[in-house]
Specification:
By secondary structure, this protein is an alpha/beta fold. The chain has 8 helices and 7 strands; from the N terminus they run βαβαβαβαβαβαααβ. Strands 3-2-1-4-5-6-7 form a 7-stranded parallel sheet, with helices on both faces. It is globular, with a radius of gyration of 17 Å.
């Protein structure tokens, strides 16, 4: 049994991952940005062991998260924020928030949770990226840049921690039917337009992302590090 922390795990991909790890017999910590009642509700619903809140845009709270959870075997950095805006309309506020939550908190949490993994000689870190690392979405230039930044962190850090039994990998979903994309996939015209760009012809589901993350966190993933697994139905091609 492993201890697993999944950020942003009260909905979407994060919730699907949390449920899968619970079903796998693991001890799962559910995370929500601010709403502890929501986190506790999801914890009870899926049978997780603990619920925590941490605003990932607040670096003081990020620095305190380790004290709330203690060490974990698997750190799944799923939470992110996305603002759709043309490059000419990007503001300091939206730029800073996306980089703080998507990149800075990711690095700080890796720094916080890694030492115990190194001491134990075992650890799995998985960041959740995006197909937009590879595509040119006109309204997601900053969001895409944050995901590219995290992918590079993964590659650089993975090489340095590999000798200590810790793997670091990225998983990049494509168009997934989550609350973030609800306004698109529930609109027939918009959904069909997106699905035309996907060779498999459909939106993915949160459950489509589960297998790769479970594998990377298992013994079967012990020899995989510093890589990116794209789960997009061929959208990037």
């Amino acid at each position: 049994m492993k201890r697993v922390l999944i950020t942003g795990s009260t909905q979407g991909i994060g919730k699907a991952l949390a449920l899968a790890f619970v079903k796998n017999g693991d001890e799962v910590i559910v995370h929500c940005s601010k709403d502890i009642e929501k986190a506790e509700r999801i914890r009870k619903e899926i049978g997780a062991s603990k619920a925590v809140v941490c605003d990932l845009s607040n670096m003081n709270e990020v620095s305190e998260l380790y004290q709330k959870t203690g060490s974990v075997d698997c750190l799944i950095l799923n939470a992110s924020v996305q603002y759709k805006e043309l490059w000419s309309e990007i503001t300091d506020e939206t730029f800073d928030k996306q980089f703080d939550i998507n990149v800075k908190s990711t690095l700080k949490l890796m720094q916080a949770y890694y030492p115990a993994m190194q001491e134990k000689g075992f650890g799995r870190i998985v960041t959740i990226g995006s197909v937009n690392q590879y595509r040119q979405h006109a309204e997601l230039s900053v969001y895409s840049a944050t995901k590219c930044a995290v992918k590079k962190l993964v590659e650089v850090i993975a090489k340095q921690v590999a000798p200590f039994g810790v793997t670091v990998n990225n998983v990049s979903p494509g168009a997934i039917a989550t609350p973030r994309n609800e306004n698109v996939y529930k609109n027939e015209e918009m959904r069909k337009a997106v699905e035309k760009s996907i060779p498999m012809g459909r939106f993915g589901t949160p459950e489509d992302c589960v297998g790769a993350v479970l594998m990377l966190c298992s013994e079967q993933g012990a020899y995989i590090t510093g890589t990116d697994i794209v789960i997009d139905g061929g959208m990037r091609l």
